[in-house]
Amino acid sequence: MSDGFVWLTIFVLSVFVGIEVISKVSSTLHTPLMSGANAIHGIILLGAVLVTGSSDDTAVLVVGLIAIVLAAVNLVGGFVVTDRMLQMFSRKKPAKRQEAGR
Amino acid sequence: MSALDTGLGADLTQLAYLLAAVGFILALKGLAGPRTARAGNLVGAGAAVLALVATFVYFPLDHKLLMIVAIAIGTAGGVLGAQRVQMTQMPQMVALFNGVGGGAAALVAILELNEMQPDPVSSVPRFVLVATAFTILVGAVSFSGSIITFAKLQELMTSRPVVFPGLPVVFGASLLASVAVAVLIILGSPTWIGVLLALLGLAVGVLLVLPVGGADVPIVISLLNAFTGLTVAAGGYVLSNVVLLVAGTLVGASGTFLTLLMAGAMGRSVANILFGALKGGSTLGAGEASDRPVRSAGPEDVAIMLGYAERVILVPGYGLAVAQAQHTLRECVEVLQARGIKTAYAIHPVAGRMPGHMNVLLAEAQVPYEQLIEMDDINDEFQHTDVVLVVGANDVVNPAARDTPSAPIYGMPILNADAAKQVVFLKRSMRPGFAGIENELLFMPETTLLFGDAKDSLSKLLAALKQL
């Protein structure tokens, strides 16, 4: 099997997994799920690091660093905002003292 | 690429990447269930950290300090944005995060194209060039499209569809030009052609989202989210990085599926959402306030209607959240419950600005989860209900979605509020809802309107209820 087909296989299997794992989601969770998935693609940060870390040219370095900042915003911000949303679902007992702080 | 090919370090990196890929699968699976969602999100974050640390430890990278500073800056920005944002403004925050991710992917692909110079065709397999062009183009589309959705939701620009004469022609032309330039890259081109492709992608993204009308914007965010996922997957193939490929593909596939689910909940097709306005303004509504007669009442009258009812259903909408009146509504409901009145909140799947958004907003106000009833489960209850209190919602109870084939929201499933004995609307004005169409329910004889800011009206209503 050539290298290209290994990648294609991983891709196709991942498509099925991606659909399968979320197929039973209730509409209540659509927004947090979208937000969490949004955070996951922030992993492009890894790509930005790999490209920037092998640069030997100032222009490439600068563009690479910009890509790293953008990707980190996506990755970290995405997970934090998703957690904030989900925190509200899990608060079972009404915590009155939380209200004043809002 | 400075990839390690042999040795223990390479094996450990691949193992860490495999664990991270599994982590992302478990994260999505967790996020799809109410009890596991928060843990799932944390697993996803952990997987990202693991993959990142492995990369830093085992790859011979230069500029490590600068890169760590850049990550720290991005992290600070992301955390600050995520913590400061009001829950009502969360959809546009997600759009923004998605946009910068797409932008990062496009930049990475341009740098990769630069790396392949001077002769891309002989340095990498042809299909890597296809993936590179795809990442540049779609990443740029996702970036500019997300910025426009952000501007629309943040009301930096009009939320109505923006259509100008010749827009379909300009859109088609820029799309064709993008494809042509992408082919140039596949045939082997210098870096600046990649930059040109990114610029064309930016134009396509703007033109794609401009004609989409307010209520449909969330679907577009979900679609662009899937786009970014696919660009990250393609970027993973270009960089021979399995984590990027798996994570990107997962998001691309689940995001596409989620987009179809959301569109289905609104009774629309994705094609209709994207291109409906181009075909002749089907998502263009009236947008004008009507001067037809309605029946309005004061808070005391409404308090009496509610206080002596047996069954009351609350229909919360985005206007409730904008007025920050969720807490006051919950207090009103608690007074009603203390009087022995049966109450429930009817949650339309797209109440708020995004599917599930209203659940988040009410959860924030500590409304017990069990009192939130989804549309399909509550729609048969309306006919046995004495009073329906609609607070800051409009389109989700508009019977035009059921009865008027020419209405832009025709086909969207709605809450059958019109089946109840009486309907009370709390509204700021007669302005139509987000979709920009008039609501016949407002003019029906069983409907009463209480004008004013939702929070103000509910406070007065609460005081009046306590007097009963």
Automatic annotation (TrEMBL), chain A:
Catalytic activity: NAD(+) + NADPH + H(+)(in) = NADH + NADP(+) + H(+)(out)
Taxonomy, superkingdom: Bacteria
Keyword NAD: yes
Topology of this chain in the membrane: Multi-pass membrane protein
GO MF term set: NADP binding; proton-translocating NAD(P)+ transhydrogenase activity
Residue ranges crossing the lipid bilayer per the database entry: 6-23, 35-53, 59-82
GO cellular component: plasma membrane
Keyword terms: Cell inner membrane, Cell membrane, Membrane, NAD, NADP, Translocase, Transmembrane, Transmembrane helix
GO biological-process terms attached to the record: NADPH regeneration
EC number: 7.1.1.1
Entry keyword Cell inner membrane: yes
Pfam name, any one: PNTB_4TM
Domain NAD(P) transhydrogenase alpha subunit C-terminal, residue spans: 8-91
Subcellular location: Cell inner membrane
PANTHER family per the UniProt record, alphabetical: NAD(P) TRANSHYDROGENASE (PTHR10160), PROTON-TRANSLOCATING NAD(P)(+) TRANSHYDROGENASE (PTHR10160:SF19)
Role noted for this protein: The transhydrogenation between NADH and NADP is coupled to respiration and ATP hydrolysis and functions as a proton pump across the membrane.
Protein name as catalogued: proton-translocating NAD(P)(+) transhydrogenase
Organism expressing this protein natively: Nocardioides acrostichi
UniProtKB/TrEMBL annotation, chain B:
Any one Gene Ontology cellular component term annotated for this protein: plasma membrane
Family statement: Belongs to the PNT beta subunit family.
Record's subcellular location: Cell inner membrane
UniProt enzyme class: translocase
Coiled-coil regions, chain positions: none
Origin organism lineage: Bacteria, Bacillati, Actinomycetota, Actinomycetes, Propionibacteriales
Transmembrane segments: 12-32, 39-59, 65-82, 94-111, 127-150, 162-186, 192-210, 217-237, 243-263
This enzyme's EC code(s): 7.1.1.1
Species this chain originates from: Nocardioides acrostichi
Official protein name in the record: NAD(P) transhydrogenase subunit beta
Keywords: Cell inner membrane, Cell membrane, Membrane, NAD, NADP, Translocase, Transmembrane, Transmembrane helix
GO molecular function: NADP binding; proton-translocating NAD(P)+ transhydrogenase activity
Catalytic activities: NAD(+) + NADPH + H(+)(in) = NADH + NADP(+) + H(+)(out)
Membrane topology type: Multi-pass membrane protein
Entry function: The transhydrogenation between NADH and NADP is coupled to respiration and ATP hydrolysis and functions as a proton pump across the membrane.
Residue ranges constituting the NADP transhydrogenase beta-like domain according to the UniProt record: 14-463
